[in-house]
Design brief:
It is a single chain. This protein is mainly alpha-helical. The protein has a single domain, classed as Growth Hormone, Chain: A. The protein is built from 17 helices and no strands. Helix 1 crosses helix 7 and helix 3 crosses helix 9.
Amino acid sequence: MTIESPPVTRREQWCWAGFDFANSSFTTVITTVVYAAWFEGKIIGAGGYLGISGDSWWGLLQALSQVLVLLTAPAIGAAADRGARKKVFLTRAWILCAITTASLSFVPLPWIVPAMVLVVLATMAFSVGENVVAGFLPELAPASQMGRLSALGWSLGYFGGLFSLVLSLALVEVDAVAWVPLMCGAFFFLAGLPTYFGLRERAVPNPDAPRSRGAWRTLVAPFRERHRYPDLFRFLAAILGFQAGVSIVIAFASIYAERIIGLGKSEIIVLFIALQLAAAGGAFLFGRLQDRYGSRSTLAWTLVFWIVAAVLCALSTGRTSFLIAAILAGAVMGATQSGSRALVGVFCPPGREAEWFGLWGFATKGASVIGLLGYSLGRQWFEMRTCILGTAAFFLIGLVLLLRIDVERGIAAARSPTVN
């Protein structure tokens, strides 16, 4: 159940979208571009740790953080719906991520385990916030405009990533890479303030929502309703496929660029600055296409582009082909994720936003576990190029499952009265 008044303002929509501007600093700087390579090269080192290479450790830590999100997200979603507390959980996740991210700058290089713990906590907090903020989307826009508003968030997010990368480049140029996490944590906190002050909790307590008596118990209730929402659950299965590929790209792009292609740290940051612009434009363009041609069709085309980019990247022997693959992937990165978020919003029954987006988070984080563990295990037998090529299979699986979805039927199921 949601409150119809006061009406949603454009300012409030921008405050919601602005959280993507804030939190993209974490995924861009920490997960993808700067800290991932720093962790692999400086924290773990060339010799590895406990017989495991640095890039494999990075994948394992990212997977562990997503497992923790999987265990808690359904309960958080149900609690947020039942008590109308989405903003409370969002605030906690935002502050925790900012603090733990900044703390990475104060971990001495030999202290591997504390760095690992902070990475897991920061990534988990980021992911929880990402899930919860998505739950506001159905309250802020009608179904016909969700794609555009979701894409606005992703577009702003890439500009947030752009600004944080420019600041990171300044630190790298003066040999102060160790202070990049502190900058990122401060950026996330300050950029998140407009969302904190401007986003309204529009839901009211929903006593019919499942109680939070353990993560898995709250997850059972919606799964028992899968016969009423077949297209939502088919889409969640598709997410398990293509999002696994996306998670590999996000986690290992800079490591691959440095180790296999031979780019330097400054070159990598400059490349990703260009990719932020391509991604912002792609998210905005595909957001318009989503509202005109539908999220399913738009998503399908992005997955085709992902397959091409993955194959081209794995076969690249020089910088030119790698750059083409990177720009292609960047252009559809935001479109894939904003389209995914918008389609879940379209399939969401009123009053169950946090719970339904908890399922979306469950699928995306589960996909990350599949992708990251698959990569980390694959690296024990195959070279990095082969593991990157394997991401094309994840995107193909997601595409096949996506084409089996009936969007109109999914919308009708979401709007039909709940049968108790």
